[in-house]
Write a structure and sequence with these properties.
The complex is a heterodimer of chains A (118) and B (401).
Chain A lengths: L2 H5 L5 E4 L6 E4 L6 E7 L2 E7 L8 E3 L8 E4 L2 E6 L8 E2 L4 E2 L23
Parallel strand pairs in A: 1-3
Antiparallel strand pairs in A: 1-2, 2-5, 3-4, 5-8, 6-7, 7-9
Chain B lengths: L5 E5 L5 E2 L3 E6 L5 H8 L5 E5 L7 H11 L4 E8 L7 H10 L4 E5 H4 L2 H22 L1 E5 L5 E6 L6 H18 L3 E4 L9 H7 L3 H20 L7 H5 L5 H9 L7 E6 L8 E6 L16 H10 L4 E5 L13 E5 L2 H6 L6 E2 L10 H16 L5 H5 L23
Parallel strand pairs in B: 3-4, 3-5, 5-6, 8-9, 8-12, 9-11, 10-11, 12-13, 13-14
Antiparallel strand pairs in B: 1-2, 1-7
Helix pairs in contact in B: 1-5, 2-3, 2-11, 6-10, 6-13, 7-8
The chains are: A mainly beta (118), B alpha/beta (401).
């Protein structure tokens, strides 16, 4: 098995950085189903509720609307609605506390939707 | 961590380098062809230069910082003859630092061929003088200044690439060395965290000032340092991107903020502010590419640079060796000839962060002792000097003493 093959584990691995984090980063694309969360608190398994792409975040605990989204042990944004464990956490349910333009981007491509090309 | 000293090059000004470079500097784009032709085929000759025919103070401070860099043993400056930036003045300042230096104008000497011949003749003289003067001396971690930069980031950069550099910075600082990180535009959202890391009330004030300027800059240019590719790659907010970038600073107290072409006043961990100050051209442009940030770090005296790239990159740098670190095992395997260190092994569970940081320290030590990095071996010598404005610090304030 080469090193790169090891990223393509089954089930997929999500990496948790800080012990208090409520999101983890997927190391490969995940389909709904089991995901292994690896990191500072050892390993545990949970279920992805939807397809989530590699490098994107999965909620590893329920996050209430308005509550902090925590990665690296720091607040990286706020939940714009209640997020269940196993859900994809991104622009559609998490906003920056600083950047007012934060949610004006396509959730898949990141392309700005607040600029007119007409 | 290996504490055995290695051999370095002692300069006339007491600084110690890990390379013995002869620098050819052109003072306007019109002299760049001749400068590169002079360096062509010469051992340990690196070429840098400033393109503009306008003596931008910021760029001149950078040229002087590079000419008197610990890795540089001698300097030849080459001008066309009608530009603002003065080759003879640069050479004089370098000579005062105890390094052999010379200069000439192409217009006073003839054309391309005769200037290249004269330049090569001068390189031979400078090399002989440099070899006569330079002393090999023991160097240890406390003599080392290491800079860190990231570019072409992906989801692994914040997970493995930057954290391993941060963990190495902790090891370096604990052994009395100096570590410099930058990219303050990627610290937006982290003001309380920066504050908590300040080593002193003075450092805290400097960090706040730099943060506030950068925050104003981001508002005025109406853009935070996060792009569509970052969102598509899974980063949701500037805070998230910032924290991933900030991870390369490690965990030790921040001694203060230095500006471009300033040296850290003492050892420890420092933040380099490369964001322009507002002036007659407003903020102007900032950070056009990775190489510019790398040159800023080298100007601060960094003898070695750690460059973290998740997606991969094929740059190197003039003056100081660049060590390329990736947190992505796939990138590492695809670009093995260009990548020096695979931190992606932390993510695959093959190693842990503390072990990887020790391995990175071993690599840094080997490079300090003369081992060529992948970009060096490939002949990469990129440089980038640009027009910019930062308020020139007064003599007293210059080193934040």
């Amino acid at each position: 098995m080469t090193v790169s093959d090891q990223l393509l584990t089954d089930p997929p691995v999500a990496f948790q950085i800080g012990a208090e984090d409520n999101v983890a980063t997927l190391l490969r694309n995940a389909e709904p189903g089991p995901v292994i969360v690896r990191g500072s608190t050892g390993e545990k398994q949970l279920a992805a509720r939807e397809p989530i792409e590699a490098s994107h975040k999965i909620a590893i605990a329920p996050i209430a609307e308005g509550a902090n989204v925590i990665k690296f042990g720091v607040v990286i944004g706020a939940a714009t609605r209640a997020i269940d464990q196993g859900e994809w956490v991104h622009l559609h349910n998490c906003r920056s506390r600083l950047d007012v333009r934060s949610n004006a981007f396509d959730v898949h491509t990141g392309v700005p939707e607040d600029i007119s090309y007409e | 961590m290996n504490e055995t000293p290695w051999q370095g090059y002692l300069r006339g000004d007491g600084r110690k380098g890990v390379r013995n470079v002869i620098l050819v500097v052109y003072t306007v784009e019109c002299a760049s062809f001749v400068a590169h032709a002079i360096g062509n085929g010469e051992d340990n000759v690196h070429v840098i230069g400033f393109p503009g025919c306008y003596d931008n103070q910021y760029a001149i401070r950078m040229i002087l910082a590079l000419g008197r860099h610990p890795n540089v043993g001698a300097v030849l400056t080459v001008g066309l003859g009608c530009e603002y930036t003065q080759p003879a003045k640069i050479a004089a300042a370098v000579r005062e630092s105890g390094r052999p230096a010379d200069s000439f104008f192409i217009q006073e000497n003839g054309g391309t061929a005769s200037s290249v011949a004269l330049g090569k003749q001068k390189i031979a003289q400078l090399r002989a003088e440099m070899e006569q003067r330079v002393q090999l001396v023991p160097m240890s971690w406390s003599d080392l200044v290491v800079g860190s930069e990231c570019g072409g980031s992906d989801g692994t950069s914040g997970l493995a690439g930057n954290p391993v550099v941060g963990a190495f910075f902790d090891l370096l600082v604990d052994r009395g060395g100096t570590a410099i990180f930058e990219e303050i535009v990627e610290m937006i959202g982290l003001r309380p965290i920066l504050d908590a890391r300040a080593a002193s009330p003075e450092a805290s004030q400097q960090l706040r000032n730099a943060y506030d300027k950068t925050d104003r800059y981001c508002r005025e240019v109406r853009q935070y340092s996060v792009a569509p590719g970052n969102f598509a790659g899974g980063l949701t907010t500037i805070e998230e991107k910032s924290m991933g970038a900030f991870a390369k600073s490690g965990t030790r107290p921040i001694q203060g903020v230095i500006r471009v072409a300033e040296r850290p006043p003492h050892n420890g961990l420092w933040l380099l502010d490369s964001v322009p100050d507002a002036h007659f051209m407003q903020f102007g442009y900032t950070n056009p590419n990775d190489t510019e940030g790398i040159m800023d770090l080298i100007c601060a005296g960094a003898q070695i640079i750690l460059f973290v790239t998740g997606r991969g990159s094929v740059i190197g740098s003039a003056v100081s060796p660049l060590i390329k670190v990736t947190g992505n095992s796939i990138t590492y395997n695809r670009m093995k000839d260009d990548m020096d260190f695979n931190a992606g092994r932390i993510l695959t569970g093959e190693t842990t962060l503390p072990v990887a940081a020790e391995e990175l320290a071993e690599l840094v030590r080997a490079v300090a002792g003369g081992q060529l990095t992948k970009p060096e071996a490939l002949g990469h010598r990129e440089y980038f000097l640009m027009y910019k404005h930062q308020d020139t610090p007064g003599l007293a304030a210059g080193c934040h003493a």
